[in-house]
Every structure is written in C-alpha cells, then in structure tokens.
Amino acid sequence: MNGLAVICRRVVQIYRAEGGDVVALAGVDLEIAPGEKVALVGPSGSGKSTLIALLAGLMRPSAGRVHLGQTDIGKLTDGELARLRGTDLGVVLQGATRNLLPYATLEDNIWLAQRRVRKVRPADVEPAESVAALVGLLGYGDRRIDQLSPGAQQRAALAVGLAASPGLLLVDEPTSRLDPVARDEVLSALDRVNAERGTTIVAVTHDMAVGEAFGRVVTIRDGRVGAEGRGGREFAVVAGDGTVQLPPAMLASYPPGTLFSVDDVDGAVMLEAEKPAAG
Ligand code: ADP
Ligand code: MG
C-alpha cells in the first residue's frame, strides 16, 4: 500500500450549535505528499480535531475541498465514505485504550480491526504477527492489552489503526503521558511504518519531540494554517485567499486594524507599520 496524498483547499467547517454557528475551520489550505509525516500543532480550540475528523472521512466539509488521493470526499455517498474509511484510512484516537479491547489479546485486537472493515478470512489479510512486528511488538501477540505497559498499549493502538494497511494514518496525541523511553519507541514505530510502508502520517500533538521527529510541523490557529516549521525553520504561509498570519507574539505590538505599507524588496517582503497620526 502506498501513501495517500492529502489536499485541502479553502476548507471551511461550521458546526451548528444552539448558541449560534461555530466556524471551526475558516479556510484551510494544506497539501501533504504521499508518504509525508506531518505534525499538527496549535492552541486548544484552533480546529485540529475538526481537521483530523475531516481527513478521517467522519464528515464532509461545509465548504471547500478535501481530496484524499484521487478522491474528493465531498462527492462521496455515505456508503462510499464508509468504504474509504475502512480500506484507506487508519485512525488512532487520543488515549490508547479507547482504540483497544483491554481484555483481549493484541492478536485478537488486530484481527477484530481487520474484520471490522469487510468480511475477510485470516488468509486474506496481513498476519497479526507482522503488524505487531511493525510497531515493535513482535512476540506480544498473545498478551492481553491490560497487561501491557502504557507505551506498548500506545503501539498496540497504532497496530490496530494499521490493521487494514491504510495509506493514511491519523493519530491524535500519540505520545501524551508517556515517559521519554516509551515516547521514543512510539516515534520509532511511526518512523518504521512510514519508511517500510510509505504510509502518510498526520499526528495532532503538543509534544515538541514529535514535531522534531516528523520534520514538518503545521500550526493551526483560529481555523487556518498559521505557520509551518520545516527542518527547524519557521515559515509563514500564504493562504488561498492571500492572507498571511503574523506570529502570535507580534500581535501585541500590531493589533487588528494596524496599517502596513507592503514592499517586495528582492524577494523579501517588507512590512512597515503606519505610525499613528500625531495629535
Ligand atoms: P482543537 O482540536 O484544536 O482543540 P476543535 O476542532 O476541537 O479544536 O474545535 C474547534 C472549534 O470548534 C472550537 O471552537 C470548538 O469549541 C468547536 N467545536 C468542536 N466540535 C464542535 C461540535 N461538535 N459542535 C460545536 N462546536 C464544536
Ligand atoms: Mg482536539
């Protein structure tokens, strides 16, 4: 299975709530190449979970387009969307045990995940042992989930998310509440999945170590892509509507409504704030 590309164009997501509509995503533009690893960061309420839910095919965008591979998910019927979820997408929810049956063995958990997708016989799917090996749990197949360490449980949750060999793996907070050793084991498991299978991986995280390991860090702010880090360097991103967000730290000095003169000086964009008129 090759990695799935992700393209979001001006994606808007509005929740209809009692107190009024909530604009969770206000025009997200994002391109992820097949086999890329992307960390999604941003303050609470910025729209990360909403974006993951869209990429997971759990809903369709209110406006804009979400392409997963060749497929525009806005154009799919409910049945087609469900099939896509089952065959191409792997989702690992925050909190390892929410993805697992605690009293069943790792092997049974993997097999249940494989069978949930479609009617298959054991011979039709990847052996549980090989999925377990991929996340560093070779030999743990007959261990019950509740007897595994938190770090091994998190990797078991990855194994379940990978059971149907998806082209896109979405993971919410894969390293939260893990000690550094367990965290590194989770990161190497994700790395191995990516290297050996070419699986595209998108992880929501508060953990800088994930961002460093992934190399590409996309910051979501107020429902938009606010900034991007690549190889340790920080970049502003031009959105589909032409807007660029200032780094949050600058907003104290340049409040909304500030006027800038804009000049392009040999590829360097100079913003000069208009001084408030005297008197
Ligand atoms: P994050 O994961 O970055 O914390 P979310 O995607 O969960 O952000 O939320 C983005 C915004 O949408 C927030 O203002 C949140 O309150 C709102 N929101 C999320 N889910 C719902 C929902 N089901 N109904 C109404 N509002 C929601
Ligand atoms: Mg969230």
Automatic annotation (TrEMBL):
Listed A to Z, the keywords are: ATP-binding, Nucleotide-binding
Give a Pfam family name: ABC_tran
Instruction: List, alphabetically, the InterPro entries matched.
Output: AAA+_ATPase (IPR003593), ABC_transporter-like_ATP-bd (IPR003439), ABC_transpr_LolD-like (IPR015854), P-loop_NTPase (IPR027417)
Q: For the ABC transporter domain, which residue ranges apply?
A: 9-247
A GO MF annotation of the entry reads: ATP binding
Check the record and name the SUPFAM superfamilies matching this protein.
P-loop containing nucleoside triphosphate hydrolases
What name appears for this protein in its UniProt entry? ABC transporter ATP-binding protein
Q: Which organism is it from?
A: Hamadaea flava
What taxonomic lineage is listed for the species of origin?
Bacteria, Bacillati, Actinomycetota, Actinomycetes, Micromonosporales
